[in-house]
Predict the structure.
Amino acid sequence: MPTTIHGIKNCDTMKKTFAWFEGAGVAYRFHDYKKAGIDAATLARWCERLGWEALVNKRGTTWRKLAPEQQAIADTAAAVALMQAQPSLIRRPVVEFADGELVVGLDTEAFERHCHG
């Protein structure tokens, strides 16, 4: 399984991520979770590894537009359902390396460590 970059195509952070991987000569697959959606099992696996708090972007406009009751996430199941309904809430990128390691956000130091040891 190749490295998969999950996110939204037209996002400055995503463009910087693609540029980093291309510049480093690292092959990747792109999954646009706004267009293709994201399954609950993947989100649950990510939440199990990282906690839903690491995945929900509370600084974006999508979060600010939510009703207070939607923002009151009670548990992982609620977070997964909300991220499925509103994929723009998922921080980006989520990079899933072939060995299963996850990196959330534009963390070029983590990319470098993982890709070039």
Notes: The chain has one domain: 3-116.
